[in-house]
Structure formats: structure tokens, C-alpha cells
């Protein structure tokens, strides 16, 4: 008898959880299509937006150059740099060649 009570209780909880999930999904779908007015009314278009400080140079002007410049390198260049790091590390033998 106790097993049937547990099965009934968890079945009711499962139906409540699934119903709540469906209700939340419907509410989320309705909220995503709703158009909200801007919080400042017409004043938002007259105010000038302030750029992020990292986009400004030392004099406060906008930077018009790329912020990230990546240099492409060949496999040989990368291997030479890694070998130089390995050879300059403490405990390495600069005269030993592991090729």
C-alpha cells in the first residue's frame, strides 16, 4: 500500500513539474515577442553614448586601428622559439642536440 502512495505522490509531482515547465516556456515565448518602451523615453536618442575606456587613446580620442594584431608564424619559427626557450631554461645542456 505504501508503494502505491509513493507512486501516486511522485506522479502528481511529475505532472506539476511538467505543467510548470510548459507554463514557463509559454510565458518566456510571450515575453520574448513583447516590445518594451525605452526606459528614458525620448531622452535616450539625444544623449551621447560614452565609449569604453579601452577604446580611447591617452588623449581621449577613439582608436581607429585594430586592437588585436596577430602575427602568423610558420611551424619552423615556432619550433625555433620553443627550442630557444628549452635551451635557455635552467638545467638544460645547450651543447646537447636532441634531433
Briefly characterize the structure.
The chain crosses the membrane at residues 6-26. The chain has helices at 2-33, 43-46, 75-88. The chain has 99 residues and is mainly α.
The percentage of residues in β strands lies in under 5%
Count of DSSP E strands? 0
Q: Spell the H/E element sequence.
A: HHH
User: What is the helix fraction of residues, given as a range?
Assistant: 40-55%
The low-confidence runs, each spanning 5 or more residues with pLDDT under 50, are: none
Radius of gyration: 32 Å
Question: Which class of secondary structure composition applies to the elements?
Answer: mainly alpha
> If helices are DSSP runs of H or I spanning 4 or more residues, what is the number of helices?
3
Q: What general outline do the C-alpha atoms trace?
A: flat
Largest sheet: none
Q: Which whole number gives the mean pLDDT?
A: 83
Distance between the termini: 77 Å
Pfam family, one: DUF2973
Transmembrane segments: 6-26
Organism: Myxacorys almedinensis A
Protein name: DUF2973 domain-containing protein
Amino acid at each position: 500500500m505504501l508503494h502505491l502512495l509513493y507512486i501516486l505522490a511522485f506522479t502528481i509531482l511529475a505532472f506539476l513539474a511538467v505543467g510548470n515547465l510548459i507554463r514557463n516556456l509559454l510565458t518566456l515565448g510571450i515575453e520574448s515577442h513583447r516590445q518594451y518602451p525605452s526606459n528614458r523615453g525620448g531622452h535616450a536618442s539625444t544623449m551621447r553614448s560614452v565609449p569604453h575606456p579601452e577604446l580611447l587613446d591617452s588623449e581621449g580620442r577613439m582608436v581607429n586601428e585594430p586592437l588585436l594584431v596577430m602575427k602568423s608564424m610558420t611551424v619552423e619559427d615556432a619550433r625555433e622559439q620553443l627550442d630557444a626557450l628549452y635551451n635557455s631554461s635552467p638545467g638544460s645542456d645547450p651543447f646537447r642536440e636532441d634531433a
